[in-house]
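User: Can you model how zinc ion sits in this protein?
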Amino acid sequence: MADPRLQSLATALPALRLKTAPADLEHYGRDWTRRWTPAPLAIALPASVEEVQAIVHWANANAVAIVPSGGRTGLSGGAVAANGELVVSLERMTKVLGFDAVDRTLTVEAGIPLQRVQEAAREHGLQYPVDFAARGSCTIGGNIATNAGGIRVVRYGNTREWIAGLKLVTGRGELLELGRSLVKNSSGYDLRHLAIASEGTLGIVVEATLRLTEPPPPTNVMLLALPSFDALMQVFAAFRQRLQLQAFEFLTDRALAHVLAQGGQPPFAETHPFYVVTEFASDEASEAEALAAFEACLEQGLVADGVISQSDSQAAQLWHLREGITESLARYVPYKNDVSVRISAMPAFLAETQELLASEYPHFEVVWFGHIGDGNLHINILKPDDMAQDAFVADCERVTKLLAQVLKAHGGSISAEHGIGLVKKPYLSSTRSEAEIAVMRGIKAVLDPNGIMNPGKLFD
Ligand code: 2HG
Ligand code: ZN
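Assistant: Here's the modeled complex, given as C-alpha cells:
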C-alpha cells in the first residue's frame, strides 16, 4: 500500500478491509458498460454505517473522490472508477435487519442483492415486486441510486414507489434517516426522493426500508407475434383494456435471433418482425379475457400468432426470450439507448425514431426491445467486429444527439431507467431544463460541498 493517502486511511480505520490488487481494481472499477478503463485508487469494503461515515470524513479531509458501488450491473457508467477514486463497495453490508408484519416492510442493508430481498419477502408470505434480469447481482442500493424499473413497472411502478425509508451518508459524512417509513408525512421536503435516482452523487445509501405487498396471483405468460411496429400500441391497448397486466414487453426478430443463437427453440414455425411477452393472472376469467383480446387483435390483423404458457417451465422459457437479450448481445459491446416517452406519445415517437435510425445507421445492426407498456424503449446498436470502439461510439453519439432532439420534441427522457452516469451526461439538457439542472447542482453543493461523491456522473 505505497500510496500515502491509503496508509492514512488504514491508520484512521485499522479494521477497514481494503483491496488494491490489480485484478480487484479492474473488477470493482467498472460496470457493464465496458467502455472505460478502470483505474481506482483502491477498494474499501466497509462493514457498518459507522465505517462508511468514517470513510467519507477521511475522503473529505484528503480530497479523494468516492464511487459508491453495488452490483455494478449498471449500463450508464454510474459505477465506473477511472480516475483514481476510492470505490466504496457495499458487498459486505447485505443483512436483512428486520421485518415488520404490521407495516409490511423489510429493512435491509443496501448491499443486499435484489433477489435476496425478493426471497426474504416471499418467506414472509409477501412480495417485493420490482424485478429484472440482473436480480441475482444488482443490489438494492444500486436500484435506489438509479430508481431501477424493470419488467413489472406496468403493474407495480419503479423502485421509488417501494422505498418507505432510507438512510443516506451524505457527502459531508452526516447520516440522514429519510422517510421514517411513515405512510403519511407532510412535514416539508421529502429528501428520500432526492436520494432516489441521485446516482451516488449526493451520498451513499446504506440502509433501506422497503414496502412489501400481496404476493402476485398465479400467472400465465403469452407470447404474441406481430406483423408491424404500428400494431404494438394497439395490441397493448386491447390487452390492457381487458386485463390487469403484470408485464407487457416487446422485442424484435433481431433480438429473438440473438437469444436463440445461444440455444433454445424458436417459439413459432415462422419468424415475425415483432414479438410481445405479456403476463396476467391465470384464473379462468383472466384467461378468457386474454383469449378474447388475442382473437380481437387477430381479426384486425394486429397479431399474427400467439402461444400461452401451459406450465411454469414454459412460462420461464417464454420469459427467457425477453430477459436473455442483454446477455446475448454483450459480445458486441452494444451502444445502448434507454429512452422513454408518455405512452400516448409512443406511436408518433416510434415512427419518427424508426425513420431516424434507419437513415442514420444504414450499416449497423440495431436491436429494439423494451418495456413498451411503460413507454420505455431499449435500442442496442451492435458494434461491427471490424470497427474500432472509439469510431463506433463517436458515430453512435452523433445519432444520439439527433435522437435527443426527437425526444425533446415528444417530451421524453434520454434515460428511462438506467440513469445518466457518464454515458448520457451530454444529453441531460434534452430532458431537464437549465433551471432544473441548476437546482440539482445547488442540492449537490449542500449535501456534497467538496464534490467528492461520484464526481463527473450525472453532470460535471
Ligand atoms: C432490460 O430491460 C434492461 O433488459 C437492459 O434494462 C436493457 O441491455 C439493455 O439495453
Ligand atoms: Zn430495461
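A couple of observations from the model: The first strand starts at residue 17 and ends at 19. The domain at 333-440 is CATH 3.30.70.2740 (Alpha-Beta Plaits).
User: Helpful, thanks.
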